[in-house]
Amino acid sequence: MFIGRSPPYHSGVKSPRSPLLLALLWLLAAAVVVPSLLLLRGPSTELYLAVTARTTELPGVELVAEVGVIALALLWLLAAWQARGAGLGAVATALVGGAGTVVAYATSEVAKTIVQQPRGCWDLIEIAHCPAAGDWSFPSNHTTIAFALATSVVLTALATGRPRDSLGTTTALRFRRARRLPPYRAMVAAPAALAIVTGAARLVQGVHFPHDVVAGATVGVCVVVALVLALRGPVAALLVALCRNEAVGRVLLAPGARVEADERALVRR
Questions:
Q1: pTM as predicted
Q2: Contact 85, 258 (CB under 8 A)
Q3: Secondary structure element (H or E) that encloses residue 66, with its range
Q4: Where does the secretion signal sit in this chain (predicted)?
Q5: What is the pLDDT of residues 150-164, one digit of tens each?
Q6: Is the distance from CB of 11 to CB of 92 less than 8 angstroms?
């Protein structure tokens, strides 16, 4: 039940002092780190040759990264679904993080066309599944997507586990306890582990140099964090407006979250 004209849903977002500044700092970090990794091409190639000499013949190695990305996408869907029970701030984090993954991938593709670094499997080693000429190496797209998804899942899990209202200590205590439960911890640890395995698999397979993988991880993490910092608040505010429509509210929020939103509206009155 909606109370008067008060907005029925609260975003749960506390405005940080300088979210845009923090977002720019994350993007600046990526802009500095990623090009700098090209300076490590020499030692990276040596490590690449040392690793692939022992791993390229491993059965099924080319499937590991594909499975890792799919698993991370499923984790993101699960995290987004769980966010519905924690308020629109958590939902906004999930949505912006998902969109940030797409932006990170596009950024990685642009970087590939600019740098045009050949893959090691074109001329240094021979493997069964080497990408065709023109599919450049730096940075690793699979790693970018994996770390972007992992970052989105972790940020969503953190937002979901954060107390979302000030109606008393019960809700805050419940969410503090929830952050200690295995399912919550798994939503932080599992995506990080999957992202690392996915990036390592691209090296083990022989399709990327180590610095490609590190660059992909940097792009994925920095782009998603920057976008969440910059857009989480505005997107949450937009969702608040959309949730004035009861049908939309039923999609974006779980029943328990809708009940507490109505209680907050009553308290504000």
A1: 0.83
A2: no
A3: helix 61-83
A4: none
A5: 999 999 998 887 544
A6: yes
